[in-house]
Design goal:
The complex is a heterodimer of chains A (about 375) and B (about 80).
Chain A lengths: L9 E4 L25 H16 L3 E5 L9 H8 L6 E7 L6 H9 L2 E6 L19 H13 L4 E7 L7 H11 L3 E6 L14 H17 L4 E2 H14 L16 E2 L4 E3 L19 E2 L5 H6 L5 H16 L3 H4 L4 H8 L8 H20 L8
Parallel strand pairs in A: 1-2, 1-8, 2-3, 3-4, 4-5, 5-6, 6-7
Antiparallel strand pairs in A: 8-9, 9-10
Helix pairs in contact in A: 1-2, 5-6, 6-12, 7-12
Chain B lengths: L21 H8 L1 H17 L10 H9 L4 H6 L3
The chains are: A alpha/beta (about 375), B mainly alpha (about 80).
Chain lengths: ~375, ~80
């Protein structure tokens, strides 16, 4: 894995900066403002991705802000320029989902992923702009999805990973009915400056417990467990060197105004005297393919790739991880050529250790529920 | 879940294969427990019909990302 690929597998689009919630851990800087993406931005991106989508599966992930805050009419206008071969995904807080949105998802073949942090008492950070708990609204949206039999994924932020939390969490998501689950240990990113250091034993125990809970009833595709098992299987098969891609996916994030940030969506909307605004161009003036081809001219990206090589040289978990994320390096350490971050520790190193601890301690088959 | 079936190894007891990084060594030293877990995971995938595509399910949507073996995609997946 060296350098950045010139063709992405998906693009993240920001139909509006606005979010109707004000979650305590959110990293987005302009979520109180309704800066909407003009259709011209979507048209420019659609023109660029047409060839990529023809060569294989290609996705547009409508992110935010809260993408549904853009409204159905505007979101439909933004999606319209894309060809039928492009898959559309939406990551939503679910609070705006109703029957009309469900019809929209079905009509436009949109894959849905919701953000919810587990049982009601674990959603204290997810609040409205008035500071009121958002859980009831989230659940109303999810109930609409279930009523319409729309399959959905879920992302769950965990602020305090430790033993005792994972079993309850997994049971909750089984009951919720999601097909896929991703667990994001809270990160220190963007405008969220809360520290994310945790005791190693606590985090490892959390992941080990999650594996145990999943193993007892593995109906859900649990992202972290699946990836960990894919890696350990490759290690055991002695094919781990083939697991990481040849080049990093650029993962372009196209902000509402057409500006493009590569590699880490969380950098969009920020600037630094040393690195500028982190953007690599704007699709309104430069085709996306050309922006990607010139990625190395973006000041921070060369420094980041140097950091990836430092990870490769120094970290025994590199084969599992591929290097610390750009945003985590920057927001935790102020630079891109550093190596291990708290995010690495919480979500990579302790994850793998937790999976291995579980496997070491449970050599017999699981007792199924 | 079953009770703990394997005693913890001390660091000194872990494999000492030359040229192997400690993570690879630890994975290999956990082979017995992982083999069972990996088999169960494969059965679970088959039960979830994740090898199929085109049915519009959320699973397949995320697998679109995950079938492309980039951990970086996984890591940078938007929240």
């Amino acid at each position: 894995m060296r350098g950045i690929a010139s063709v992405p597998t998906y693009v993240v689009m920001q139909p509006t900066t606005l979010c109707n919630l004000d979650c305590a851990y959110c990293y987005l800087p302009f979520r109180a403002a309704d800066n909407r993406m003009p259709v011209e931005v979507a048209q420019a991106v659609a023109t660029s991705v047409e060839g990529w989508a023809g060569d294989g599966r290609f996705s547009v992930v409508w992110h935010g802000g809260e993408p549904l805050a853009a409204g159905r009419e505007h979101l439909a206008a933004l999606m319209a320029p894309f060809g039928p071969q492009v898959e559309h995904h939406v990551q939503t807080n679910a609070t705006l989902i109703d029957d009309a949105w469900c019809n929209f998802f079905q009509d436009h073949d949109v894959r849905v992923s919701v953000s919810v942090d587990g049982p009601e008492e674990r959603n204290g950070d997810r609040v409205t702009r008035g500071g009121k708990p958002a859980y009831d609204r989230i659940m109303r949206g999810i109930e609409a999805l279930r009523r319409h039999e729309i399959p959905f994924s879920a992302l769950c932020v965990v602020g305090d990973p430790r033993a005792g939390a994972a079993t309850e969490l997994y049971a909750y998501f089984l009951e919720l009915g999601c097909d896929v689950l991703g667990i994001n240990v809270e990160e220190q990113e963007g405008v969220n400056t809360r520290a994310n250091g945790h005791a190693a034993a606590d985090v490892t125990a959390f992941w080990a417990e999650l594996v145990a809970a999943w193993r007892a009833d593995p109906r859900i595709h649990l992202r972290e467990v699946e990836w960990s098992l894919r890696y350990v299987a490759a290690v055991l098969d002695r094919t781990a060197d083939d697991l990481l891609p040849r080049q990093l996916d650029p993962i372009p994030t196209v902000a509402h105004d057409g500006s493009v940030v590569l590699l880490s969506p969380e950098l969009a909307g920020f600037s630094d005297p040393r690195y500028g605004d982190f953007t690599s161009g704007n699709v309104l003036s430069t085709p996306l393919a050309q922006i990607l081809a010139g990625a190395m001219s973006t000041p921070w990206i060369g420094e980041f790739l140097s950091g990836v090589e430092s990870c490769r040289a120094a970290c025994p978990y590199f084969g599992f991880c591929g290097g610390a994320h750009a945003a985590n390096r920057y927001f935790e350490q102020g630079r891109f050529d550093t190596t291990e971050t708290d995010h690495c520790r919480n979500s990579k190193i302790r994850l793998l250790e937790g999976v291995l601890d579980h496997a070491r301690d449970h050599e017999s088959p699981a007792v199924r529920c | 879940m079953p009770e703990t079936t394997s005693p913890r190894l001390s660091d000194a007891e872990l494999s000492e294969e030359r040229g192997i990084d400690p993570v690879t060594a630890r994975v290999r030293d956990t082979r017995a427990g992982l083999a069972t877990l990996l088999e169960e995971a494969e059965q679970a995938r088959r039960a979830r019909a994740e090898s199929t595509s085109g049915d519009g399910s959320a699973v397949c949507a995320w697998n679109h990302f995950e079938n492309i073996p980039t951990f970086y995609n996984w890591n940078n997946r938007p929240r």
